[in-house]
Amino acid sequence: MSADLEERFIDSFRLAARQAGAVALRLQGKVCAQTKPGSSPEAEALTAVDLATQDVILHLLHRDLPEVAMDAEEQTETVALFASPTADGDRRRPVVVVDPVDGTLNYIRGSADFGVMGALLRDGRFQAGLVHLPVSGTTCWAVRGGGCFVDGPEGPRRVHTGGAEPTIFYDPRTPAAWRDALSRRFGHIELSRCSAVDAPAPATGRARGGISAGHADRRQAIGLFLTLEAGGAVRIGGQRWQGEDPELAVGDGPSIVAEDDALADAILAAVASAGGGVGQSIP
C-alpha cells in the first residue's frame, strides 16, 4: 500500500468535493425532494442531486484510489466500482466514507448550511478527512497528526480551535431539558441540522462547541476529526474520542465537540445535570 494514500485521498477528494459542490449549487431550488427509509426527516431527505454528486465523486475517486473499499451514503451504481467495506473480514483494506450532500433537508429548503464530506479510515481509525461548504466556498481538511487546514485567498492556512463565535450548536434530537440547561450555562445556543457545519465548527470558527444527542456515526465523525486535528476535544458516548471508527466504539450518550477539554466537560456536565432522554425531535 502506498505510503502517501492519505495525501492522494485529500488531493482527489478536494477536487471531487468542489466539483460536486458546484453541481449542487447550480441545481439548488430546481430539484424535487424524494424520500428514503430513515428514522427522521434528516435521514429520509433525498434529492437527485445527492445521487448525481455522489457519481461525480466516486468516478474521480475510483480513478485515483481504486484500491480502497467504499462506504457511500447513497445506493448508486458507482458504488459497485469499489470493494465493499465488509468484503475483507479482517478490515485491512482502507475504507473511504462519502456523504455527497450532508444537510439535504437544509439544501431542499434553500439554506446555505449543507456540505460535501469524505474521509479515509485505515486500521479502524480516521486518517484523513475533508469538508467542503459550497455556498461559502470553504474547504477544510486534515490528515492524522498533520493538523487542520482551510483554503484561503492566498492558499491553504493552518487553523486552530479557539476564538470561535460564542455559540453552542445542538441537533434536532436534543431534549428540551438539555437545551434549557445549555442556554442557562452558555447563553447563545443554535439548532444545526448539518454535521458538515456543526461537527467542525470549533475549527472553522462557526461555534465554540456542539452536542448531538445520539452516538456519532462515521459521517458525523468526519467533521469531528477536523476539530480534533485543529486542537479541539471530542466526546462520544461520554468517552474521549481520538479518531477511532465510531461504528466500533462502545458506550452510550451524547456526542460532543468543543474547542478544548474544559468546554467539552462543561457541556457534558450541563446536560448531565438536566437529565432527560434522547431521541426527541424538534419541529
Model description:
The chain is α+β, with helices and mostly antiparallel strands and 283 residues long. The chain folds into 2 domains: 5-159, 2-Layer Sandwich (Fructose-1,6-Bisphosphatase, Chain A, domain 1), CATH 3.30.540; 168-274, D-Maltodextrin-Binding Protein, domain 2. Helix content is 33%, strand content 25%. The strands form 3 sheets. A 7-stranded mixed beta sheet has the order 3-4-5-6-7-8-9, with helices on both faces. It has a 6-stranded mixed beta sheet with strand order 11-10-12-15-13-14, sandwiched between helices. Helix 1 (5-27) runs antiparallel to helix 3 and helix 5 crosses helix 9 (261-274). The chain is globular and about 50 Å long. The termini are far apart. 48% of the residues are buried.
| Secondary structure category | alpha+beta
Mean pLDDT: 89
The outline comes out as globular
CATH fourth-tier homologous superfamily of the largest domain: Fructose-1,6-Bisphosphatase, subunit A, domain 1
Q: What is the CATH C-level name of the largest domain?
A: Alpha Beta
CATH architecture classification of the largest domain: 2-Layer Sandwich
Largest sheet: 7 strands, mixed
State the domain count. Answer: 2
Order of helices and strands: HEHEHEEHEEEEEEHEHHEHEEEH
Report, as a whole number of angstroms, the end-to-end distance: 48 Å
Secondary-structure map:
Blueprint lengths: L4 H23 L5 E3 L5 H4 E3 H17 L4 E4 L22 E8 L1 H5 L6 E8 L2 E9 L4 E6 L4 E5 L2 E5 L8 E3 L5 H11 L2 E3 L3 H4 L2 H4 L4 E4 L5 H12 L3 E4 L2 E2 L14 E4 L2 H14 L9
Parallel strand pairs: 3-4, 10-11, 10-12
Antiparallel strand pairs: 1-2, 4-5, 5-6, 6-7, 7-8, 8-9, 12-15, 13-14, 13-15
